[in-house]
Amino acid sequence: MGENNVAIGLSSQAKRAQHDKKNCEIEHFQVWSKSQDGSISEMEELPVPQNIKISNITCDSFKICWDMEPRSKERITHYFIDLNKKENKNSNKFKHKDVPTKLVAKAVPLPMTVRGHWFLSPRTEYTVAVQTWSEIIEFCTADYSTVHLNQLLEKAEVIAGRMLRFSVFYRNQNKEYFDHAREVQGNRMLPSVKDNSGSHGSPISGKLEGIFFSCNTEFNTGKPPQDSPYGRHRFEIRADALFNPDTNLYFGDFYCMYTAYHYVILVLAPKGSRGDEFCKQRLPALDISNNRFLTCKQNEEGDGGLVFHHAQDVILEVIYTDGHQLMSLSTVNAKKDPSCKTCNISVGR
C-alpha cells in the first residue's frame, strides 16, 4: 500500500455521550487513514489532550498549550478549540446565550497564542476546551494595559475643553455620612476600595484605595456648583493641600454612562506612597503643570503660591491616595456605555 494521508473528522456512527453533566450530545472525534487508492482503513478515536495550561493572559489574548501522547502527535493535523464566556449564575435565564465559538487550529508547535480569532473582552471569565473532549479550563482576561489606557487618554484629551481656574477640592455626601465620620470614625473619612464603575478593563477598579474628590466649578461663578448628586453636605479643602509638586498625577479612566456627560478619573498620589507605587506600574503619568485635565503651576506673580486649573468640558473625579480611597456614591458600580464612540477603544468589542 502507498503512503497514508491522515486527517481529522467526525464519525456519523459514533456513540452519543453526556458532557459536563448536561444533556449535551457530542459526536466522537476519530481518525481515519486514506490510502492512495481511495480506500479507508481502520478508524480509531483520537486521544484526548491532557494538562491544558493557559498563560500570558492579556485583556484580549492568551497562550494555550497541552500535552498529547507522543505517538498521536504525528497523526493529528488540526485541533478544535472551543471558547465560551463563563456562565453567570445571576444571568437572565431567558436572555439569548452567547453562541459558542470554535476555532480550527493547525497542529502547530505549542504554546500557541490566541488573538483575533475571538473578540475577547477585558476582565471577563471564559472556559476553553480542546477537541471538545478535553477538560475545561477556566481563566479571566486581564485589565487594560498602559497602551490601552493611552488610547483612552488621547480620546479624553480631544473633548477636555478649555481650562478653568479653581482653588478647592470638595466632597459632597449626605448628613449621615459626615455624622458617622465625626462620631464613630474619630472625625475621619475612612478609605474604601474603588467600585467597578467606568471602563470594564480599568486596572484601578476594585483595587485602588483613596478618597474621591471633585474640583469642577461653575463657568459663571468660578465656584463649586451649589447642587451635587452625591449629597447636600460638603467638605472643602484647599487645593494645595492635595495637589502640589510633591504629588504625582495619573490618568485613570475615561467613560460615560449613557448620557452626554463624560467622566475622567485622575489619581493624585503623594510621591513614594503605596498608591504612587501602584499607579506607576499601571497608569499613564501626567505632567502636573502641562496636561489637558488638571494642572498645578507656580503663580506668575512670583509670590511662591500655586495656581490650579481644571478642564471645563469633562466631569473630573479625583482620587487622592496614600493607599486609601472612598467610593463615589452617585456612580457606585455604574456600567460604562459600551456603544459610545467617544470614550471606547477597540478591544474585543
Overview of the structural elements:
Residues 48-155 form the Fibronectin type-III domain. It holds the Pfam family fn3. The chain has 349 residues and is mainly beta. It folds into two domains: 5-140, Sandwich (Immunoglobulin-like), CATH 2.60.40.10; 146-331, no CATH class. It is 11% helix and 36% strand. The protein contains five helices and 23 strands. It has helices at 70-73, 146-159, 175-183, 239-242, 274-280, and strands at residues 5-10, 17-19, 22-26, 29-34, 40-45, 50-55, 62-67, 78-85, 101-106, 112-114, 125-130, 137-140, 163-166, 168-173, 192-193, 209-213, 233-238, 247-256, 262-270, 285-286, 294-298, 306-311, 315-320. Strands 15-16-23-19-18-20 form a six-stranded mixed sheet. It has a four-stranded antiparallel sheet with strand order 9-8-11-12, with no helix packed on it. A hairpin with a 5-residue loop joins strand 4 and strand 5. The chain starts with a strand and ends in a 29-residue tail after the last strand. Mean pLDDT is 78; it is low at 1-41, 91-99 and 324-333.
